[in-house]
Amino acid sequence: MIKKLINTPGEEVREMLEGMALAFPEIIRLDPQWNNVYRAYKKPSYKVALVSGEPAHAGYVGYGMLDAAAAGATFTSPTVPQVLAAIKEVATEAGVLVIIKNYSGDVMNFTSAVKMAQAQGIKVDYVVVNDDVSIAEKEKRRGTTITVLVHKIAGAAAEEGWSLSEVKRVAQKVIDNGRDIGVALTPCSVPAAGKYTFELGPDEIEFGIGIHGEPGVQRIKYIQSKDLAKIMVDKIAEDLGLKKGDEVFLVVQGTGGTPYMEKFVFYRDVRKYVESLGLKVFGSWIGEFMTSLEMQGGRVAILRLDEELKRLLTAPAYTIAVRITGPMTLPVVT
Questions:
Q1: Is 151 a catalytic residue?
Q2: Which domain holds residue 185?
Q3: What pTM does this model have?
Q4: Which residue of the set 151, 168, 179, 212 is catalytic?
C-alpha cells in the first residue's frame, strides 16, 4: 500500500477541484457535471477565451491566463464531450484558443472537440505545445512546462483584446522559443494503480521524463546538482540555438516531492551556468508548475524573449498559482 492523503482512489481529481473551488470562489467555479474549472466571471464577448486540459491547469484559470481547464483522471486526457463542454461554456464572439500538450490522447480528444465546436458555429483554433527537448524527433516531443508560459503570454494578449489569429500567433511564438527537460530521482504512484510507475536504484537518475509518471529517455548514474544543471541547460541551449547576449526567462521547478531547499540549490546552479554562457536572465519562476504527484526531481525550462514576450509575461494575472500585479519585474512565484 502506498499512503496518500486521499479518500477513494479514482476520485482524487474531482475532490481536489472541489477543494480548490471552495478555497478560491472569487477566482474559479467548478462544473457540476464535468471535471472542468471555469473563471468565476466570464470574459466579455470581444476577448478571446483560452482553454487547456490537465488537473494542474486548474491553478492557471483566472484573469490574465486561462478561461477553462478540462481535467481528466490522473495522468489521463479529458474526454471529447468534456472538452467540447468547456469550449462551449467559455466561448466568446472573438473566439476560443485551445492549448494542447503533445500527448496522443490529448491531441486526439482536443482536436476532435475543436472540430465539433467549429461544426456548431463556434470560432475556435488551437496550438500544440511540444517543448520536451529530451526527445530528438520534434514531432514526438511532449508538452510540458512551456505550456504554462503559453497560458500566461497568450492569456495576456487575450486580455488586451487581440484577435484570435494574433493570440494564436504569440502562443506559437512561445512554443517556438521555449524548451524544457526534466529528471526524476524517485518514481511516483498513481492512486488508482497503487504502485510506482517505474523503479530506480539508489544511485540512479531517470533522465528526460515527461509529466505523467513515465520513465525518461535514459537512465544515468547519480550526479551533483551543478553537473545535472549543466547537462540539462546544454540540451536546451543547443536545441534553441541560444547565443551570447540572448535574453531568457527561466522556470526551475521540482516534480512534486522536491523540497524547497533542493529547488533553490538547483535554481542557483542553473542560473549560474546560464549566465556563464553569456545569456541574460530577465526573470525566473521557482516552484511547482507541472509536477508528477510525489515524484522527487527537477525540471528546467528556458524561454528566449523579445520585447513583445517580455511585456506580456509581466502583464497582470490573478490565478490560484500565479499572481502578478504588474507590469513589473517578475517575482519568484511559489
A1: no
A2: 178-324
A3: 0.95
A4: 212
